Amino acid sequence: FLRDTTMNLMLAGRDTTGSGLSWFFYLLTRNPGVVSKILAELDTVSSSTTTPDGMVTYDPDELGRLTYLHAALCESLRLYPPVPMEHKGVVAAEALPSGHEVRPGDKIMVSLYAMGRMEAVWGKDCREFRPERWIGEDGKARYVPSYKFVSFNSGPRTCLGKDMAFVQLKAVAAAVVRNFEVEAVPGHAVEPKISIILHIKNGFKARIKRRHAGA
């Protein structure tokens, strides 16, 4: 059991984390203001390491307290959940809140991609990339129920690797934003490729250059 669980976490987390980061950096190229806010927040981190070649990395515990970085990642995962579809099996006859009747053996497909863009759930700006929706008036992270933000599933079926995924996402996101400028290749169409994992069709083509100190 322990072996199978470990393999599941490692294999399931590889492509999903990569997909999530690709969409995150794509969104950052379209929202330079968000990049500026992440950089400003990274400036508040007291513990960082600079490698001999000038690369800056951060302690995961320090990154865990950064509200805006967390909000930006959640907002990206809302718009582009790495696993865009979820299916459920019916075990007993039931009437859903929508009025639809289901019978044992029926399969229910749930689009997490669509749920993250529902105006009734997220408001009129549901299609906008706005990390501030995850931050309360007190400047702290706003509580959002798992049944609303379902990128990691919800309730007792919440992804076991959720916390591990955020550690990885924050570590990579912070290091790349601090050390590099990412620019989408002009003319490259970015659109989702719907499959088990929400990849970018033909990949995300970008130009990368070192960020100057203080930039």
From TrEMBL:
GO terms for molecular function: heme binding; iron ion binding; monooxygenase activity; oxidoreductase activity, acting on paired donors, with incorporation or reduction of molecular oxygen. Heme binds at residue 159. The keyword Iron applies. It holds the Pfam family p450. Keywords: Heme, Iron, Membrane, Metal-binding, Monooxygenase, Oxidoreductase, Transmembrane, Transmembrane helix. Coiled coil: none annotated. InterPro entries: Cyt_P450 (IPR001128), Cyt_P450_CS (IPR017972), Cyt_P450_E_grp-I (IPR002401), Cyt_P450_sf (IPR036396). One of its GO terms (biological process) is lipid metabolic process. Its cofactor is heme. Belongs to the cytochrome P450 family. This is Cytochrome P450.
